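Suppose a colleague, Dr. K., hands you the sequence of a protein chain of 52 amino acids and asks what its three-dimensional shape might be. Before reaching for any lab equipment, you can write down a predicted structure in token form. Begin with the sequence itself:
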Amino acid sequence: MRWLLRKCPKCGLYTFQEFCPKCNGKTHVAHPPRFSPTDRYVRYRLILKNEF
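The predicted structure, expressed as tokens, is then:
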């Protein structure tokens, strides 16, 4: 399943496009990653989250 809904981090607009039609910023997928209790990459995601 592909995630279609995207959100612009600059203005907060939700859209289906890769670039925001309002501010022309790059949009990101608005959905969180799926949860898995056997996730092998959780450690790396937490490191990246804490860096930014």
